[in-house]
Amino acid sequence: MLRRKTFAQACAFLAVFWLVGEVFFGFVRSPFADTFTGNVYVAAQKNGFVQLEPLNAQVRVEIIDKGFVYDRVDEVSKSGLRIKFTGEGIETLKRYGVDPKLLGGEDPHGGLCEVRTSDTRNHANLFAGMKTEYSEQEMRYITAHDMTFYKVASDDVDCKTIHVGTVRFDNVQIAFDGLSSPGFVFADLKRDSHIGFLQRMIMKLRFNAEKDWPKFLAIN
Question: Looking at the DSSP assignment, which residues form a beta bridge with residue 187?
Fold first, then answer.
């Protein structure tokens, strides 16, 4: 009887500890520090308009908050994007000049792009003119971020220039620019969260793209 009571007390303590942790991290974590996945397109100018060609490829983007111990992977010390493309269309991405470290491979996390600079704009135009499935009235991003990245050693990932546009809490769009072919690579991403429900709901209640993104990236 005593052993069962002790076990029940231990379970109750762990449940309370987990609940407190979820609430704490929900209030201190950047609402953008999560995983997003989506389909990939090649965007090119044709007759003065940007046209999207869908690829048989997907991309997983994990947004990493600098110095947030809960999210540290491989001793990451700067805000960044961990990116991995998958699918048959990665052969096209190779021809476009996307770094091989971001394409498939054995590393389940993909390649790490550590943010060096970020130019933030509010109410910016959509990168590829692509409206989301949520609203046909979606004409602008809440915020858009033009990012450059560190490349210290020759074997570091060459992330070129990446643009991230915030549509809403669960939806961002990303464009990979500065490639070896004309045009750019584009993806419409939905939150594919690795975070618990309670923590994620607190993050959503706190969400303010115009304030959170600049604060998130200003600490590089």
Answer: 40, 174
Reduce the DSSP state of residue 94 to 3 states and report it.
helix
Q: How far apart are CA 73 and CA 82, in angstroms?
A: 10
Number of domains in the chain: 1
pTM, to two decimals: 0.85
Nearest partner of 118 among 17, 12, 213, 1, judged by Cα: 213
Distance CA 210, CA 166 (A): 9
| Structure token digits, residue 57 | 């490829």
Here the tokens at position 30 are 């950047």
**pLDDT digit string (tens) for 134-179?**
665 567 898 999 999 987 676 788 999 999 999 989 999 999 998 8
What phi-psi label fits residue 147: left (phi over 0), alpha (psi between -120 and 50 degrees) or beta? beta
Half-sphere exposure of 155 (CA within 13 A, CB side): 0
Domain boundaries, position 124: 2-217
